[in-house]
Amino acid sequence: MTRNLPLVFDAPSRGKAPTHWLDLDPDDRREAMTAFGLLGFRADQVSRHVFDRLSDDVAGWTDLPAAIREDLAQQLFPALLTQVRQQTADGGRTVKTLWRLHDGSLLESVLMRYPSRSTLCISSQAGCGMACPFCATGQGGLKRNLSRGEILIQAFAANRMLTSGLVPGTTGRLNNIVFMGMGEPLANYKAVLGAIRTLIAPVPAGFGMSARGITVSTVGLVPQITRLTAEGLPVTLAVSLHAPDDELRNEIVPVNNRWPVKEVVDAAWEYARVTRRRVSIEYALMRDINDQVQRAHLLADLLKRRGDWGWVHVNLIPLNPTPGSRWTASRREDEAAFIATLERRGVPVTLRDTRGSEIDGACGQLAAKEASTN
Ligand code: SAH
């Protein structure tokens, strides 16, 4: 069966974000300084304020000539995000923020504090064009791609929240970033890769994070997975499989009509082979849809074909039901039987915790609620 597929690569350009320091590569930053009549080395001074001190208060950067600070603030430090709402759970250790972009688009990011690390779930697009029927974001369609700056400012804001002691348990920085918020990161490839390069560039060029701490989650855009494989970046790849067979996956992950299960798994395996990074297979358990023992066997067959199990890890996610949707979480006993089957077959598997489910933690739920009340 063929059907009209969502636009995969071309998001509307309407609403393009204003240019921000966070959009720039090191070369562009030096050029920007020259345009202000300063020497190129000043770029590192500015970047130190941004990435090291997490400051955006340009007026207070007294090591820069007073005469240019106002222009610099206006031209390269526009306000990219306005906070609309914040919700916390888990004793303040899970913080979900709903942001409004300059053109009114909404996006959300979720900060999760664990005993020894902090993880931020970020958005790569306003909305999403992949149309997965169980996903709140998928129901609203794609508004537009986020700019590199709009992606990075989410990490900037979270780091600020952490270092200012607002999250119990730490004043440290982010250790992990997962592209599991709104949007399909590989459909906004250039901005996402640019953002990753800034996240991992050492201070002052970037945030100095470890590439291993960054996870790119994709619905399975095969050509883009192949492109990512060639980048030589040891980021973690997560593939939202959710079904081991084309018949079901065509329904619940519509882009499967274009790139079927086998091609997706082949591309993921190649990613693991080249990068030596274990791939995560995401599988949201949906009651009576994909949670049968027989499908657990199909999943094991599919992944086992690649030889040993070192290349892959299955991450089961209890479905977070979206209001008014017919998709819901599996019964406990079905969930247990699914896990037991995979374990017996030797598949490395974990059940993801459900942090933040009481604050509409599932992808796009908070933004969907806000949009429907406006
Ligand atoms: N578009 C990318 C990344 C964003 S979604 C992707 O598809 O991977 C991040 C993960 O959350 C995906 O695995 C997605 O399928 C899953 N997800 C979406 N809605 C969900 C829900 N209601 N409950 C549980 N997981 C959900």
UniProtKB/TrEMBL annotation:
It is found in: Cytoplasm. One of its GO terms (molecular function) is rRNA (adenine(2503)-C2-)-methyltransferase activity. Residues 114-358 form the Radical SAM core domain. Its EC number is 2.1.1.192. Gene3D superfamilies: 1.10.150.530, Aldolase class I. Binds 1 [4Fe-4S] cluster. The cluster is coordinated with 3 cysteines and an exchangeable S-adenosyl-L-methionine. Reaction proceeds by a ping-pong mechanism involving intermediate methylation of a conserved cysteine residue. Specifically methylates position 2 of adenine 2503 in 23S rRNA and position 2 of adenine 37 in tRNAs. This is Probable dual-specificity RNA methyltransferase RlmN. It comes from Arachnia propionica. The gene is rlmN.
